[in-house]
Amino acid sequence: MIDDLKKTLWATADKLRANMDAAEYKHLVLGLIFLKYISDTFQARRAELTLRFADPADEYHLDGAAPEDIAAELEDRDYYREANVFWVPEAARWEAIRAAAKQTDIGKRIDDALSLIEAENPKLKGILDKRFARAQLPDGKLGELVDLISTIGFGESAATARDVLGQVYEYFLGMFASAEGKRGGQFYTPRSIVKTLVAVLAPHHGKVYDPCCGSGGMFVQSEEFILSHGGRLGDVAIFGQEANPTTWRLAAMNLAIRGIDFNLGREPADTFTKNQFPDLRADFILANPPFNISDWWHASLSGDARWEYGDPPQGNANYAWLQHMLWHLKPGGRAGIVLANGSMSSSQNNEGQIRASMVDADVVEVMIALPGQLFFNTQIPACLWFLVKDKRQRRGEVLFIDARKLATMISRVQCELKDEVIERIAGTVAAWRGDVGADEYADTPGYCRSVTLAEIAEHGHVLTPGRYVGAEAVEDDSEGFEAKMQALTEKLGEQMAKGAELDQLIRQKLGGLGYEF
């Protein structure tokens, strides 16, 4: 049902954008979904309060209150803030927006509504993107889009409506990333990669940090993981940083639409030069930093305390990201990072020495080689690094997993890791760590192997899984080469004889028709 709804909504919304660029259009659609969400949750809280005011057994009961007194009480902002619900002024409520959908100034009305909401809710200040009045949509299309978004939110409860809106928001993020191609990958990490990171790390408590958080998908998936394993929303504290201002807004809306409390810093800012959380020590870090960026360096970063294992090269930020995340881990904390495959073996510009220092310090826990074609924006082969500070399980060893052949194609140009594959990978890591309730670990040729630091040193500290896991086991060939060749030769002889018979039969048939050979 929800999948059909998402596809129908996307098809209609995509048709409405006409010739408008997807990169611009996404802010209109996602902004309207967010506006619909906060209005829906506000109205749900209002309906709840109305019932409680009338219930003699409820602490909020207003005994003998006149209708105008009840109406005034419903406008008390404290009732909404105590339930973590955004206050929505009357002129900004969705019914007012929908009623004006066919007006020529609907864009300005939406911008004004967003300004009113920001003024009433300090946490949203600077987050809502007010670009509707200048949207380059054909006449009437913005009003049609408002009507379309009005159909979202069906459900028997506010929680169900929130989940529907959240799923639609994430689905649209993914579809816009696909439509934008290379640019889209800057704000959206494919869901199966995020699910793999989360499943291996299992972030069930404490502080979760993403220093390049994009649209916030890592946090959303972390919360889903916690809820699916019997935890509670709020068991983790969310910290994120993002340099791109529009993507920073998308992340804030993505988290708010799901009721997730978050701290994305005071402003969008560069993680290396304007670290928003210098004193943060996280329990879990999940990140998909931009691959191989060359323009990251600034003179102020020379001698930075984060470069514990060596100065990262100024022409490539991969090892700056790895060390930044290690710096922000608390003792026993774990990080999962997506990086280009070159990071596992590069020896240029001090990268080999940094990697050797990290391996020797026993901060590398698990390395996973990913299939190609997982991303919207690049065909660069990628891998997953899992780091740990003060390793407490399997000291002196690294687990290598080769998942390059485990993907399923979902389109002509893209593949994904199915849930059963993700569960297998997570189960392998849990078994290797010796987690409670996990199966017993065993090396599997061609798939996984636990390797000592000494052996890794013998291979020049290269961390490519394929170098260590070996080839897949093949069935024992008890028949032997000589017997197999004899059988193949006999089979070939039979087929050649059959071919000669068919050739003779064809000649006879054609001869009967007057053809000569």
- Annotation, overall tally of beta strands: 10
Main sheet: strand order: 2-1-3-4-6-5-7-10
Cα Rg = 29 Å
**CATH topology descriptor of the largest domain:** Rossmann fold
CATH superfamily descriptor of the largest domain: Vaccinia Virus protein VP39
Question: Strand pairing plus helix content: what structural class?
Answer: alpha/beta
The amount of beta strand, in percent, is 5-15%
Helix content: 40-55%
Q: How many structural domains does the protein architecture include?
A: 3
**Count of runs of 4 or more consecutive helical residues:** 17
CATH architecture identity of the largest domain: 3-Layer(aba) Sandwich
Low-confidence stretches: none
Form type: globular
Mean pLDDT: 87
Task: Give the oligomer, counting copies of the same chain as homo and different chains as hetero.
Answer: single chain
Termini separation comes to 68 Å
CATH domain class name of the largest domain: Alpha Beta
Mind summarizing the main beta sheet? 8 strands, mixed
Q: What's the helix-strand series?
A: HHHHHHHHHEHEHEHEHEEEEEHEHHH
